[in-house]
Design brief:
Radius of gyration: 31 Å
Helix content: 25-40%
Pfam families: C1_1 (PF00130), CH (PF00307), RhoGEF (PF00621), SH2 (PF00017), SH3_1 (PF00018), SOS1_NGEF_PH (PF22697)
Shape: globular
Organism: Colobus angolensis palliatus (Peters' Angolan colobus)
Number of helices: 19
GO molecular function: guanyl-nucleotide exchange factor activity; zinc ion binding
GO cellular component, one term: cytosol
CATH architecture of the largest domain: Up-down Bundle
Keywords: Guanine-nucleotide releasing factor, Metal-binding, Phosphoprotein, Repeat, SH2 domain, SH3 domain, Zinc, Zinc-finger
Strand order of the largest sheet: 1-5-4-3-2-8-7-6
Length: about 675
């Protein structure tokens, strides 16, 4: 029914599309407020032509219209109320039913998705492929980012969307959006890098005339020269941020209660996606800011990204327990730390590093005098009272601003409801895509996205801490689990997971030649496939510092040996004979109890789908080995990491587990789904 109706609604659809384009332009180009705009159907159905006239009037008074010599209306002398002239028009035009409006919305969703997918294909076919003969692979990767991944995802998305729209009432459309929510998270990377991609494209085109000519030729072939590659690169970011607006309009014109509720789920998913993409983009900008801080501060031997997001920085005067005279300083405040520096031209000399975990602030207005500079002060006091600082500010307003940021930082370290329901929540950087245990929405950003319970590992937003179900674990050890160097492992886990810096993948080996310039620091050995976590990096610099996650070594290396690390799509583990799916210890022990030594399975923990474990029969007992996941890597020991569960299992099918656990001298021999190869003798 919907498909048949589409042809008769094409003209209406195009009219509504043009009206919405006009309304968007009024906001984006002319600066009108949303409250000054009419609704699309106010004009289309002539429901409220007075509101249309009101919008046009507001438009005529904008600076852009005035500069073009357009006469604004109404003038003060003119009479208001002319909308009565149009009062009978709406009665003469057939009105669209809500069903017709809903069909228009569905048509818009499908047609714009078809056009967008064609645009992605055009970028790949008419720009990316031809330019591969002119540009280096690094340039192609920087300019086009993950455009091919976007095309693959949207080809499948469009296919599923069309199938859903072909069903009665498009009742299953909401499921398509929910299904693709996590797949669309790849937009986080694209939107974070598209600005740099455009700048890099401009630099390359300006430096090489042949590239500039090729770009013009590509544009001519792709769309008769109407849009440049630079224009087209911005389209994906605009598209992913529009889905929730399209669904919002569809919800508005859906009458059936169940359909409306289902579409609201899809709307929530796309709103969550848009917020997540924006937060990833913002976090990448924050990491660049942190890197600039890092490179400008001398004597700083640790990564600032470990200490959260920057809150505020600026000049102040300071006294301490050791020195009572006021000292001129420049301070950087982050979520977890205060860096007190002395300014030296364009750089800073670190004088003191204050970890805020053990400090609190206290206002002291006794010396405040508005007519005297640097008299506005508050105290930064250590909990034990052994150390403290007096921070002086130039004006009362600056003092208030710094106090607010300190309070916010300490609130992030010790949030309200951090211990609610038996939990112990702490700020945490999640490596994998994670949803809040309370609201099921995504934890947004690339580092310190939210909080994780130190006991049960439950993830949550700061505002959701009080609504997370009771803690399921209170720090106890579970019998039967391997515990070698447990304290050391926990410390290493925490150290790794606190890192929130960008990661690169090595594609060319480096063994120290050429050496890092001057006394910059030691070189970092690189092998193809290694994952390097950046600690210091500038796009314009040839040498970067990082930590090799395979060896835990830190050092410097040429930046042209690495490329952005892209985590592959989740592996389909169900094809393996050793994968048991969600299962707890008791289930594994029941399955393996009567099996041969060396029989094993890999299971997903029921309470935490991000955690896995190996269960293996050895010496008549079932042993359980926790698989640690961090940085997108899998490991059962600090010595060796793998990029996937399959690689980990295949390695230990060939190599003994005794290298990790001395009491476990066996390989992973028999996947539990294989038929038993020996007859178990019954006791006499």
């Amino acid at each position: 029914m919907i498909v048949l109706l589409y042809s008769s609604l094409d003209k209406r659809f195009l009219c509504l599309k043009n009206i919405r384009t006009f309304l968007s332009t009024c906001c984006e180009k002319f600066g009108l407020k949303r409250s000054e705009l009419f609704e699309a159907f106010d004009l289309f159905d002539v429901q409220d032509f007075g509101k249309v006239i009101y919008t046009l009037s507001a438009l005529s008074w904008t600076p852009i219209a005035q500069n073009r010599g357009i006469m604004p209306f109404p003038t003060e002398e003119e009479c208001i109320g002319d909308e009565d002239i149009y009062s009978g028009l709406s009665d003469q035009i057939p009105k669209m039913t809500e069903y017709d409006k809903r069909c228009c919305c569905l048509r818009e969703i499908q047609q714009t998705e078809e056009k967008y997918t064609d645009t992605l294909g055009s970028i790949q076919q008419h720009f990316m492929k031809p330019l591969q003969r002119f540009l280096k692979p690094q340039d192609i990767e920087i300019i086009f980012i993950n455009i091919e991944d976007l095309l693959r995802v949207h080809t499948h998305f469009l296919k599923d969307m069309k199938e859903a729209l072909g069903t009665p009432g498009a009742a299953n459309l909401y499921q398509v959006f929910i299904k693709y929510k996590e797949r669309f998270l790849i937009y986080g990377r694209y939107c974070s890098q598209v600005e740099s991609a455009s700048k890099h494209l401009d630099r390359v085109a300006a430096a090489r005339e042949d590239v500039q000519m090729k770009l013009e030729e590509c544009s001519q072939r792709a769309n008769n020269g109407r849009f440049t590659l630079r224009d087209l690169l911005m389209v994906p970011m605009q598209r992913v941020l529009k889905y929730h607006l399209l669904l919002q309009e569809l919800v508005k014109h859906t009458q059936e209660a169940m359909e409306k509720e289902n579409l609201r789920l899809a709307l929530d998913a796309m709103r969550d996606l848009a917020q997540c993409v924006n937060e990833v983009k913002r976090d990448n900008e924050t990491l660049r800011q942190i890197t600039n801080f890092q490179l400008s501060i001398e004597n700083l031997d640790q990564s600032l990204a470990h200490y959260g997001r920057p809150k505020i920085d600026g000049e102040l005067k300071i006294t301490s327990v050791e020195r009572r005279s006021k000292m001129d300083r420049y301070a950087f405040l982050l979520d977890k730390a205060l860096l007190i520096c002395k300014r030296r031209g364009d750089s800073y000399d670190l004088k003191d590093f204050v970890n805020l975990h053990s400090f609190q602030i206290r206002d002291d207005s006794s010396g405040d005098r508005d007519n005297k500079k640097w008299s506005h002060m508050f105290l930064l006091i250590e909990d034990q009272g052994a150390q403290g600082y007096e921070l002086f500010f130039k004006t009362r307003e600056l003092k208030k601003k710094w106090m607010e940021q300190f309070e916010m930082a300490i609130s992030n370290i010790y949030p309200e409801n951090a211990t609610a329901n038996g939990h112990d929540f702490q700020m945490f950087s999640f490596e994998e895509t994670t949803s809040c245990k309370a609201c099921q929405m995504l934890l947004r950003g690339t580092f310190y996205q939210g909080y994780r319970c130190h006991r049960c590992r439950a993830p949550a937003h700061k505002e959701c801490l009080g609504r997370v179900p009771p803690c399921g674990r209170h720090g106890q050890d579970f019998p039967g689990t391997m515990k070698k160097d447990k304290l050391h492992r926990r410390a290493q886990d925490k150290k790794r997971n606190e890192l929130g810096l960008p990661k690169m993948e090595v594609f060319q080996e480096y063994y120290g030649l050429p050496p890092p310039p001057g006394a910059i620091g030691p070189f970092l050995r690189l092998n193809p496939g290694d994952i390097v976590e950046l600690t210091k990096a500038e796009a314009e610099q040839n040498w970067w510092e990082g930590r090799n996650t395979s060896t835990n070594e830190i050092g410097w290396f040429p930046c042209n040996r690495v490329k952005p690390y892209i985590r592959g799509p989740p592996q389909d583990l169900s094809v393996h004979l050793w994968y048991a799916g969600p299962m707890e210890r008791a289930g594994a022990e029941s399955i393996l109890a009567n099996r041969s030594d060396g029989t094993f399975l890999v299971r997903q923990r029921v309470k935490d789908a991000a955690e896995f474990a190996i269960s293996i029969k050895y010496n008549v007992e079932v042993k359980h080995i926790k698989i640690m996941t961090a940085e997108g890597l899998y490991r059962i020991t600090e010595k060796k990491a793998f990029r996937g569960l399959t690689e980990l299992v295949e390695f230990y099918q060939q190599n003994s587990l005794k290298d990790c656990f001395k009491s476990l001298d066996t390989t992973l021999q028999f996947p539990f789904k294989e038929p038993e190869k020996r007859t178990i003798s019954k006791p006499a």
